[in-house]
Amino acid sequence: MSHWIDARSATAPEIAAFAERHPVAILPVGSFEQHGPHLPLDTDNRIAEAMALETARRSVGMVLPVLNVGYAWVWRGKPGTLTFRFETYMAIIRDIAESLSGWGIKAVYVLSGHGSNPQPVKHAIREHIHGHYDIGVLNGIYSGLGEMLEECDSRPWHNDIHAEEIETSLMLAIAPELVRMDRAAADYPPVPAEYGKSELSMGQLMESGVFGDPTVASAEKGRRWLETGGQRSAELWLDYLARRGLHQAGGAT
Question: What's 4-249's CATH class?
Answer without folding.
Answer: alpha beta
